[in-house]
Design brief:
The protein has 603 residues and is of the alpha/beta class. 53% of the residues lie in helices and 12% in strands. The strands form 4 sheets. The chain has a 6-stranded mixed β-sheet with strand order 6-8-9-10-7-11. The structure holds adenosine-5'-diphosphate.
Length: 603
């Protein structure tokens, strides 16, 4: 049971330190202090002081064979060795000093030992115990008695609890969870028909889409206790501890039923068990315990298990089978309507000016998660305060979207004149290519103010409405738009710069996806050459084809990008005059809106 002893270690070292302090104090400091106080003088000085009547108090210590005495003012203590002096008593009497034999009774050795050793020890032990108890209480952590407790946070029903109304969008997920709430309110209705509630619900989706919020909202609506723990909290250093925690969590939950148990990031314990030797014993035991516990509680017992993850594909199949987590609730990134709703929910907390158009902001923030939208609102509020305004205006929101996309404006970045010109042409190149192609989102804003992300400028395109499908032409146009910046540099300056690295990366990614995943190449038809591994976390793809095919894919990607690059160059050469005009305007203004851009283009 060395796990039990472990937390006690700090206490033992505390006692060792106390003992050392006592040793030093009793054997070194005390005698040193005593010696410092008492001055040693010779017997002659004593006689002289006696004759001059300079003695105050005198104590003759026969046993120690010494005389302790003070001066008249009692400000200094002296010590001298005893001499065979028959006239000592007479001499002292003549000197007018107060004198005696030993005044201080030698303390009994037992009492002295008690006072100098035992008493301080007792005091320190008491302090130590007190400190230890307080430490344990604060940490809520292990001690010998409560070892392996789950320390799950219990959110008991409270008036400030999150409700479904606080979670905007996510209607499908809410619909799914409303049933759970209804069941917790009214279990008999379900029991009558013989319907069994799912034991577990798995909320899956990208980070920041409101999974935790939804789980809390279920508890808030149902008005039942809510136990919340993160998957990683179960993982301990010692084998068996995590399992003990799972056991304890379910024990507590059953006592409090009806209730909701929420395990965030369940992939930390629920990862697929693989047959490799030397696997993670602790994690497997914890998972096994969780599986057993889930089998163990009766259907309709009133304990509902909710779990969240953004890596559902990594979960053990035993965990996701019916009877355990039987229901999977997707919590996807919000669509246009959802984004607008989320913005409005969070905007309730801040003061908003009359010109704010949430639907436009939602359109601009395409692909943002709920957490990012909440962040955008807060950034806008901070910007309003910084500018000394009392309410948030549209410009604050638009700027904060740009902050989230591209970082803050770089105040002290100074571009040379030539660089600024190149950046202007580069950005107008993107915008012009986009505008000249049909099936391309309209330009919203062009800016050449450098950002902290390293972007020297950017062109923002915003779709009018929600877009679920993309045609081959649209993707090709997008690639052409991405190459437009570099094409403008070539057309105007006849040389190229490093400014296009991000464009290149994106254009390549899109073209590759067209060929390997969307079946948009003639040669490979509808064969998947890539599989997406982490759907909710960036969507990394891994190639699943032979080396020869890879070579062919690479060749085709190059061809595709080249073709679009050529197209962009053609568009810009044909519109050279507009390109110059627009670039000069952007160079001067640094930021122009989509309307300004279009009015010059159409002029
Ligand atoms: P997840 O658990 O999915 O990673 P959270 O539930 O912790 O995300 O959400 C993080 C924050 O994002 C919440 O505190 C909330 O402010 C905001 N948020 C996310 N989704 C929504 C939503 N649908 N409605 C309102 N706020 C949301």
């Amino acid at each position: 049971m060395n796990e039990v002893k472990k937390p006690r270690k700090p206490l033992i070292s505390y006692y060792v330190i106390v003992l050392l302090v006592l040793l030093i104090f009793n054997f070194i400091t005390m005698p040193w202090l005593m010696q410092r106080q008492v001055q040693q003088v010779d017997y002659g000085t004593f006689i002289e002081m006696a004759q001059n009547q300079e003695l105050g108090q005198v104590e003759v210590q026969q046993q120690e064979n010494q005389i302790l005495f003070t001066n008249k003012e009692n400000t200094a203590i002296y010590k001298t060795g005893m001499m065979p002096d028959p006239d000592l008593t007479q001499r002292l009497a003549d000197s007018g000093a107060e004198f005696s034999g030993e005044i201080v009774e030698q303390m009994s050795p037992l009492l002295s030992f008690l006072l100098t050793w035992v008493l301080p020890m007792v005091i320190f032990v008491a302090i130590g115990q007190l400190m230890y108890k307080r430490m344990m209480k604060n940490a809520g952590g292990p001690n010998a008695m409560m070892f392996g407790k789950s320390n799950a946070k219990v959110y008991v029903k409270s008036s400030e609890g999150i409700k479904f109304a606080d979670v905007a969008g996510e209607d499908e997920a809410k619909e799914n969870l409303t049933e759970i709430v209804d069941y917790l309110h009214n279990p008999d209705k379900y029991k009558e028909v013989g319907a069994a509630m799912p034991k577990g619900l798995l909320l899956v989706g990208p980070p920041g889409t409101g999974k935790t919020m939804l789980a809390k909202a279920v508890a808030g609506e149902a008005n039942v206790p809510f136990f919340s723990m993160s998957g990683s909290e179960f993982v301990e250093m010692f084998v068996g501890m995590g399992a003990a925690k799972v056991r304890d969590l379910f024990k507590q939950a059953k006592e409090k039923a009806p209730c909701i148990v929420f395990i965030d990031e369940i992939d930390a314990i629920g990862k697929k068990r693989e047959g490799q030797i030397g696997g993670n014993d602790e994690r497997e035991q914890t998972l096994n315990q969780l599986l057993t516990e889930m089998d163990g509680f009766e259907e309709n017992s009133g304990v509902i298990l909710l779990a969240a993850t953004n890596r559902p594909e990594s979960l053990d199949p035993a965990l996701t089978r019916p009877g355990r987590f039987d229901r999977r609730v997707p919590v996807e990134l919000p669509d246009l309507k959802g984004r607008e709703a989320i913005l409005k929910v969070h905007a309730k907390k801040i003061k908003v000016g009359p010109d704010v158009d949430f639907s436009k902001v939602a359109r601009m923030a395409s692909g943002a998660s709920g957490a990012e939208l909440a962040n955008i609102i807060n950034e806008a509020a901070l910007r309003a305060v910084r500018d000394g305004r009392k309410a948030v205006v549209q410009a604050d929101l638009e700027e904060s979207i740009e902050i989230v996309i591209a970082g803050y404006q770089k105040k002290n970045a100074i571009l040379t004149d030539k660089e600024k010109k190149i950046v202007s042409y580069h950005e107008i190149g993107h915008a012009l290519v986009a505008a000249m192609q049909s099936h391309s989102a309209p330009v919203q804003k062009i800016t050449i103010v450098p950002r902290t992300s390293g972007a020297l400028g950017y062109t923002m395109q915003v779709e009018e409405g929600e877009h679920y499908l993309m045609s081959k032409e649209e993707i090709e146009n997008k690639v052409a738009t991405l190459t437009g910046g570099r094409a403008a540099e070539e057309v105007v300056f006849g040389s190229v710069t490093t400014g296009a690295s991000n464009d290149i990366e994106q254009a390549t990614k899109l073209s590759r996806a067209m060929i390997t995943r969307y079946g948009m190449s003639e040669e490979f038809d509808m064969v998947a050459m890539e599989t997406v591994t982490n759907q909710y976390l960036g969507g990394d793809a891994s190639l699943a084809c032979s080396a020869e095919t890879q070579t062919q894919i690479d060749r085709q990607v190059v061809e595709l990008v080249k073709k679009q690059h050529e197209k962009a160059r053609k568009i810009l050469t044909e519109n050279r005059q507009k390109l110059d005009e627009l670039a000069a305007y952007l160079y001067e203004k640094e930021t122009i809106t989509g309307e300004e851009f279009m009015s010059i283009l159409d002029a």
